[in-house]
From TrEMBL:
This is HCP-like protein. InterPro entries: Mitotic_Regulator, Sel1-like, TPR-like_helical_dom_sf. SMART domains: SEL1. Coiled coil: none annotated. PANTHER family: ACTIVATOR OF C KINASE PROTEIN 1-RELATED (PTHR43628), CHITIN SYNTHASE REGULATORY FACTOR 2-RELATED (PTHR43628:SF1).
Length: 398
């Protein structure tokens, strides 16, 4: 009551003292609350070690909320060595006790492979269960899975996003903006997309800030203002969001809202790549391949394209194919090049589609097939790739 100000005025000092007294009487709920006070700094200084100890005591006494909180400490390595196996077991206990937060985190473990093998179906089922209990994090994750996952349902994603917005969730506002931008479960409405990205951004949501930057850069629901886009990418990058760091590097490379500075671009791509961002990894490979902000190093370029490809980056796959085709940082291997072009082309990469079309047209290490060449030139051309449009036009005239 004193923490949230329910029926009484907020008083963090009283909340802390009451929790402390009740915890001394071996009350598991009070122990969990006291742990929260120590973790956040409510009525006392932040003390993660004391928070861990209180959560551990409460969890051992069967408190399902404390079990989830303790699991988060093990998952994130807070006040204790990171231990994903223990985190998984604690989330499982909390979930079995019926705590929606524990169910949600268990779903996250199955989704990401934390302390267990990846099982997207189990993750989906657990998110669904927690979402039905009103857990807003699971509602957000479930909305994402309805857009990207095993049971696509854009209408449900849209409805869940609206529910989250009703609860003033910044993540929900950003997701609803995505629904309006791409037409997930609703008509495309760029102005509404911009409005919801702005609302999310104003509340400090990193994805919202990044998407708002994209709106200003490309004129989505608003006038183009590349300086505003640059400032938003800069803010997101400063907060450590890897995609924001990558996009800030892109701004410096291309002069979007700022002066071109390829050295800064290179450093930012490196930073994003170090955080595991696939766009950053691929762009860093391009820097080493072409000598952008650094000296040319074809071997490093090859390794980075290989890493980007392993991360599922389509341009990385295409670039790795080019390395094998031309012997960049590795030996020529036309068979591997074809396999990579084919894989990336099937997944919709327009450059790979163009490269594959060229190979079918020439009959290079693949049986010559003009119909296949036309097919892939057409696919690439439909995505606006001008070289493919020219080649297709010429081929159809022959």
């Amino acid at each position: 009551m004193y923490i949230h100000g329910k029926d009484v005025d907020k008083d963090y000092n009283i909340a802390f003292e009451l929790s402390k007294k009740l915890a001394e009487r071996e009350n598991p709920n009070a122990m969990n609350r006291l742990g929260y006070c120590f973790e956040i700094g409510i009525g006392t200084d932040v003390n993660l070690q004391m928070a861990f100890e209180m959560y551990q005591k409460a969890a051992n006494l069967g408190n399902i909320i404390a079990q989830c909180n303790l699991g988060l400490f093990y998952k994130n390595g807070k006040a204790v060595a990171q231990n994903n196996d223990k985190a998984f077991e604690l989330f499982k206990k909390s979930s079995e006790g019926g705590f929606s937060g524990g169910i949600s985190m268990l779903g996250r473990c199955y989704y990401m492979g934390v302390g267990t093998s990846i099982d997207k179906q189990k993750a989906f089922e657990l998110y669904q269960k927690a979402a039905n209990m009103g857990n807003y994090i699971s509602q957000y994750n479930l909305a994402n899975m309805y857009v990207q996952g095993i049971e696509k349902d854009y209408k449900k994603a849209f409805e869940l996003s609206k529910k989250l917005v009703e609860r003033e969730s910044p993540d929900g506002m950003n997701k609803l903006g995505c629904c309006y931008e791409y037409g997930f479960g609703t008509d495309i409405n760029m102005k509404k997309a911009f409005e919801f990205y702005k609302k999310a951004s104003d509340l400090g949501n990193l994805h919202g800030m990044y998407n708002l930057g994209d709106c200003y850069e490309n004129g989505i629901g608003t006038d183009i203002d590349r300086k505003k886009a640059f400032k938003l990418y800069q803010k997101v990058a400063e907060l450590g969001y890897s995609h924001g760091i990558y996009y800030l590097g892109r701004c410096y490379k291309k002069g979007i809202g700022t002066d071109i500075d390829v050295q800064k671009a290179f450093k930012l791509y490196q930073k994003a790549a170090d955080l595991g961002n696939s766009d950053g990894v691929n762009s860093l490979g391009c820097c080493y391949d072409d000598g952008i902000g650094t000296v040319v190093n074809k071997q490093k370029a090859f390794k980075l394209f290989q890493k980007a490809s392993d991360l599922g980056h389509l341009y990385g796959m295409n670039n790795l194919g080019c390395c094998y085709y031309n012997g960049i940082g590795t030996e020529i291997n036309k068979k591997k090049a074809i396999e990579l072009y084919q894989k990336a082309a099937n997944l919709g990469n327009r450059l790979a589609q163009y490269n594959l079309a060229n190979m079918y047209k020439r009959g290079n290490w693949i049986e010559k097939d003009i119909n296949q060449a036309i097919h892939w030139y057409k696919k690439s051309a439909e995505q606006g790739y001008q070289l493919a449009q020219k080649k297709l036009k010429k081929l159809l005239k022959e």
